[in-house]
Amino acid sequence: MTDPVTLTGDEGRIGEFDEKRAEAAIRELLIAVGEDPDREGLLETPARVARAYREIFAGLYQKPEEVLTTTFDLGHDEMVLVKDIEVMSSCEHHLVPFHGVAHVGYIPSTDGKITGLSKLARLVDVFARRPQVQERLTTQIADSLMEILDPRGVIVVIECEHMCMTMRGVRKPGAKTITSAVRGQLRDPATRNEAMSLIMAR
Ligand SMILES: Nc1nc2c(ncn2[C@@H]2O[C@H](COP(=O)(O)OP(=O)(O)OP(=O)(O)O)[C@@H](O)[C@H]2O)c(=O)[nH]1
Ligand SMILES: [Zn+2]
């Protein structure tokens, strides 16, 4: 078993993942849906699901500044854009997945402070691995980049399919939700259009 981790979400809450409590809750849920948690196939399920949730919500215990630690002063002052970063998140209304891709771009600060490309994908994970709505996921990525890298502009575009709209409820597989957040110089229509055409190019 992994050690308990301290909860350091951006809302400043303090706590840790309570594996025993999660396990008991899953057992209760199985009983509530009319299953028998003591039948052989389900014996390990509460513990397994608890461990799965710990992983799925791991972003609750990470701070964005912890993943954006590697920065370089390269003096590069043009746009940097990483496209098609896989997003795997959980809808906070139904606790089922929504998944798709994120495109994250920024124009570095005037002194050219940039970060490692993989760190942008790690930043997406920090916020995706929490109970989320797509709009908040999008703005949290944009705002934390602005705060930590002090860039001249940021653009975040996310395209996702929500399982709560496919496996239940309205049942519309294939429907995609697109959200965007632009900050700083990327609000300028010409710069924003340049970024959007790079994002849309296949
Ligand atoms: N804005 C937004 N809505 C979301 C997101 N994920 C799920 N939802 C929506 O949250 C809403 C919750 O609506 P409710 O009426 O409270 O729940 P419900 O009865 O399960 O709704 P249905 O999904 O329409 O069956 C639904 O319309 C979902 O499609 C998201 O990331 N952003
Ligand atoms: Zn949902």
TrEMBL record:
Pfam families: GTP_cyclohydroI. Its EC number is 3.5.4.16. Zn(2+) binds at C91, H94, C164. Pathway: Cofactor biosynthesis; 7,8-dihydroneopterin triphosphate biosynthesis; 7,8-dihydroneopterin triphosphate from GTP: step 1/1. It catalyses: GTP + H2O = 7,8-dihydroneopterin 3'-triphosphate + formate + H(+). InterPro entries: GTP-CH-I_C/QueF, GTP-CH-I_N, GTP_CycHdrlase_I, GTP_CycHdrlase_I_CS, GTP_CycHdrlase_I_dom. Coiled coil: none annotated. Keywords: GTP-binding, Hydrolase, Metal-binding, Nucleotide-binding, One-carbon metabolism, Zinc. Residues 23-199 form the GTP cyclohydrolase I domain. Belongs to the GTP cyclohydrolase I family. Homopolymer. This is GTP cyclohydrolase 1. It comes from Streptomyces amritsarensis. The lineage of its organism: Bacteria, Bacillati, Actinomycetota, Actinomycetes, Kitasatosporales.
